[in-house]
Structures are given as C-alpha cells and as structure tokens.
Write a structure and sequence with these properties.
With 406 residues, this protein is α/β, with parallel strands linked by helices. The protein folds into 2 domains: 24-59 and 95-210, Rossmann fold (3-Layer(aba) Sandwich); 62-92 and 214-398, Rossmann fold. The chain contains 16 helices and 14 strands. It has helices at 27-43, 47-61, 71-77, 96-108, 122-134, 144-149, 151-159, 174-187, 205-213, 215-228, 243-249, 278-281, 319-326, 337-351, 357-370, 391-398, and strands at 16-17, 20-21, 67-69, 80-85, 113-118, 137-143, 163-167, 192-194, 234-238, 258-266, 283-287, 290-294, 330-336, 378-383. The strands form 4 sheets. It has a 6-stranded mixed β-sheet, with helices on both faces. Strand 9 (234-238), helix 11 (243-249) and strand 10 (258-266) form a beta-alpha-beta unit. The chain binds pyridoxal-5'-phosphate. Pyridoxal-5'-phosphate (PLP) is lined by residues 93, 95, 120, 122-123, 198, 238-245, 311-312, 356, 358-359, 384-385.
C-alpha cells in the first residue's frame, strides 16, 4: 500500500459524532484548538504532507505491518484467527502512527515542545521518538504507579531525550497523568502542542488521531482480501481510549463485517473502581474536554478505574465509539484480568508472540468467541502492541498461576 487517505465523513464541523465529542474547554484554549483544527484540515488535503507521512510510515515505522494467520491458535479453538501485527512497528505498538502525524503537524505549526500523558508508557515512548526525529522538545506526564510498573519504557523515554514528569495524586495512573499534562499544557499552549495519545479529548483530536491510525485498517482491508479473497467475518480490538480499535474499524465501517471493541473488566466488573469498562458500565457525560460514555460518580466526577493493562485504565472513551455503540454498529464486550493474562502466556507459547497485555484482551475475546458463536468463522484481531514492556510484571504477578516460574 503506497497511498493512504486521512479523509472521512465524520465528525461534523464542530467535532460531533452524533451527540458525542465536541469541545468543552476554556475560551482561551478554544482559540488554540481552532488553530490546530484549521492547520490539520489544511494538511490532511496536502499531498506533500501525506507523502512525507507515508514515507515515514514505510521507512521509519516499517509499514505495512503484516497480517499473520495464527494457525496453531485457529486449530486449537475452531475459527480462523488472523493477527494484524502492530506489535512489529518501530517502538512496539500502534501509537507511533498518530505520534508521527501529530509531531509533523506541530512542527509545521511552529510549536517548540510536544507534551503528553502516558499510561503503559507506549504513547510516551512513541511521542519521545517522534520528538527526537522532528527535533522538538518533549515532556511526558506519567502516573507514579505506572512509572514503577513500566520501568523499561521510562528509561527509553529518558534516553530519547524526553522529560518524564510524575503525576502523584489519586491512583497515580493514566487519568491522573491526563490531569497533570492538561495542567502543564495550560501554562503555555502557544509553544507547546498537546499530542493526545488516543481518539479522545476536544475536537479535533478524536478525528485527527483516528485519521492517522486509519492506516491500520486501510492496510488490513487490502491485505486480508489478498490473502483470502474475502473480508473477515469479524474484527476485534481492545479499547482503552479507542485509537487502535478506530484505526482498524474505520476502513470497514461500510462493509458487512462485524466489529467488536473489547474493554477491560479488570478484577470485578460489578464493582466500580475494579474495572475500566466504560461503555459496558458507564453513561454519557463530559470529561477532559469532550462528551462520551464515561465512568462517573453521582456528581459527574470521573470514577477511579483499574485494569491489569496500564494502557486500558481510562474512565472515558473516544466519542466515535460512543456513537458506534448507540447506533449498534460496533459490539462492546469485556475480558477480565485473568483471561487477558492467560492469553498473554498462551499466545507466547502457542504462536511465539508475546503480546502487550492490552492486546491480549482482544485475542482472549477472539478465542472465547471462536468457541461459541464464532465457530468456523474468520476473525481478524488488531494486535496493538508487543509485550516486552510487560514481561517482568507478568512473571512476577502471574507467572506462578500460568506455569512460568523463574
Ligand atoms: C495504549 C495502548 C492501547 C490502548 O489505547 P487505545 O487508544 O485504546 O488503542 C492498546 N494497546 C497497546 C499496545 C497500547 O500501547
């Protein structure tokens, strides 16, 4: 695939996907956001920009990422399971796709510094990488708990030249990192560019990040047809903020392909604070500058959330997902910690692929589905990232349970 598109029908001019999305931010920030929207709408039509981004996707990221037919897993569970290998991208996950786009845009707008929050550290590493490549400064905000859990990624960011700034309040994870990054951004929104790490935040970010990630589905659609002569029956992806899922779903929205977003059920789906299943258990509200399903208390404040996967524990979700849920185009379902960790070890043993714990949620749902209503069908799973960052945590906390003892 040598030519990608960034143009899709939704959202409307104010950033709405149906009733979701929009921009709920202070007026002084709205002015800056309008400038970003304007700049982005121009460059997404600009063939020179698309050529520059495409060149980086191919020669820097290593795109297109392959689709792998997981023969052993397929045989074991009774459906044809294919993996879109975003884990093979430079920096190990899908996030580099939108980080490069955002960094190029920031550079063209004359910004000096990229800033962002990070959960598992994958967005931080991807953004620090894009900052190094484009010669921009970089501040990464990260929860203290995640800093301890995702140590290798913290070291990577520092080597890449980024400042890692700890978020020390609340549960000290992704949501708090977003709060801290927002605070940092407000100090100088003119020279800094807040490169949001998923399809969340105020307009234009849910649109822009989706557009950059849509490379995944554009490739997958062509690759799958080449491999099998058909489109897949089902496509599955894990949903934290929802960028890897929108990335693979977007190219298939008008096709007769069933789509599934897999949310983290954590330790217990019935207890608030023990999961991060936003669409399964949440309700519409406004948070972090946009309207979407969210997990909130009676005052509309974000609830504490939890998942074994640092990249999935976010109490809201991209607004387009909320829209796709309401119109019934995408099915949203859950996988809990144990199911995901079981698949983390199983995929490694059965196919020789160590998945990110986030991605293991999607694969776990695929095999569950394969044994029930999905028997005999074809299932394409977006393997959003690799598990190198998770190996120490996984063995220390789950090794005994799943038979890997050091
Ligand atoms: C960050 C991350 C996710 C979750 O983010 P989305 O925006 O929902 O895609 C999933 N998988 C991996 C590997 C990640 O790094």
């Amino acid at each position: 695939m040598t030519s990608y598109t960034l143009n899709y029908a939704m959202p409307d001019a104010n950033g709405y996907f149906g009733e979701y999305g929009g921009s709920f931010i202070p007026p002084e920030l709205q002015t800056i956001m309008d400038e970003i929207t304007q700049a982005y709408l121009e460059i997404r039509q600009d063939q020179a920009f698309i050529a520059e981004l495409t060149d980086l996707y191919i020669h820097y990221v290593g795109r297109p990422s392959p689709i792998f037919y997981a023969k052993n897993l397929s045989k074991k569970y009774g459906a044809d399971i294919y993996l879109k290998r975003e884990d093979l991208n430079h920096t190990g996950a899908h996030k580099i796709n939108h980080c490069l786009g955002e960094a190029l845009l920031a550079k063209k707008m004359g910004k000096k510094k990229l800033i962002a929050e990070t959960g598992a550290g994958q967005h931080g590493v991807a953004l620090a990488t894009a900052a190094a490549l484009t010669g921009l400064e970089c501040d990464i905000y990260m929860g203290e708990v995640d800093i301890a859990k995702e140590h290798p990624n913290v070291v990577r960011m520092k080597i890449l030249g980024a400042n890692v700034i700890p978020a020390t309040h609340g549960r000290k994870t992704l949501k708090e990192a977003v709060d801290a990054a927002f605070g940092g951004y407000l100090k100088d929104p003119v020279n800094q560019f807040y490169a949001i790490g998923s399809v969340v935040g105020p307009h234009p970010f849910p649109m822009m990040v989706r557009d950059f990630q849509s490379v995944v589905g554009q490739e997958a659609r062509a690759q799958f047809a080449d491999m099998t002569g058909k489109l897949p029956d089902h496509i599955m992806a894990c949903v934290g903020g929802g960028s890897n899922a929108m990335g693979i779903f977007t190219a298939f929205l008008d096709d007769p392909v069933k789509l599934y977003g897999v949310e983290p059920a954590g330790r217990n789906l019935e207890i608030m604070g023990e999961h991060a299943a936003t669409m399964t258990k949440g309700k519409p509200g406004v948070m972090h500058g946009f309207k979407s399903y969210m997990l909130s208390d009676e005052n509309g404040e974000p609830e504490e959330v939890y998942s074994v996967a640092s990249g999935l524990d976010y109490p809201s979700v991209g607004p387009q997902h909320s829209y796709l849920k309401d119109i019934g185009r995408v099915n949203y379902t859950t996988i809990n910690d144990d199911e995901a960790m079981s698949m983390f070890f199983e995929l490694a043993k059965v196919e020789g692929i160590i998945p990110a714990i986030e991605s293991a949620h999607a694969v776990a749902y695929a095999v569950k589905f394969a044994q029930n209503e999905g028997r005999g069908s074809s299932i394409l799973v977006n393997l959003s990232g690799r598990g190198d960052k998770d190996i120490d945590f996984a063995v220390e906390n789950y090794g005994k349970k799943f038979g890997v003892i050091l």
